[in-house]
Design a protein that fits this description.
This protein is about 30% helix and about 30% strand. The chain is of the alpha+beta class and about 170 residues long. The mean pLDDT is about 80.
């Protein structure tokens, strides 16, 4: 008789404890969800292009140059992009530009970036900041041997892939 009462009380107590649905609910703990997505951005700098100066005869025009050449500028720009842009926050696809205004003293006077698309302002600001941090002194363009203000455009093709690594 005692064993039947003991078995019955054990069965009732087990069923009473089985009413808790979940450990987290019984402890009232909120478990935060972690963002497991990762973004990978690649880019190709297509080059620096001089914007034509209509006021100068093409035969007397000499383009602006970066000391050390275009390859040195692109290398320095890539270093500044790596140092200053948080690539994991952006998903960028397409051709972007950086427009550089160089005055007759060879000083970078203005930087613009584009195109402006939805939610692109933070990225365009980072892009402009990186271009501004590259060496600011250029060899200015010349017309008839006289240094002149000039503009150049830098084209960069971006491609990004975002993937979820929650299950890795």
């Amino acid at each position: 008789m005692k064993s039947i009462l003991f078995s019955l009380s054990l069965l009732i107590s087990t069923l009473a404890f089985a009413q808790n649905n979940d450990v987290e609910e019984s402890l009232n703990i909120d478990i935060p969800m972690a963002d497991a997505s990762t973004s990978s951005v690649t880019y190709s700098v297509r080059g620096i292009y001089q914007i034509k100066d209509e006021s100068c005869n093409p035969s007397q025009f000499k383009s602006l140059r970066y000391p050390g050449g275009t390859d040195k500028y692109i290398k320095e720009l890539k270093e500044k992009l790596q140092q200053n842009v948080n690539w994991s926050t952006y998903s960028i696809n397409g051709l972007f530009f950086v427009k550089l205004d160089i005055n007759k003293d060879g000083i970078l006077s203005k930087v613009e970036a584009g195109p402006k698309v939805a939610n692109s302002e933070p990225f365009l600001k980072d892009l402009k900041d990186a271009a501004t941090k590259v060496g600011k002194t250029w060899i200015p363009a010349k017309c008839n041997g006289t240094p002149i203000d000039s503009k150049a455009i830098l084209k960069i093709d971006f491609s990004s892939m975002t993937y979820d690594n929650a299950f890795n």
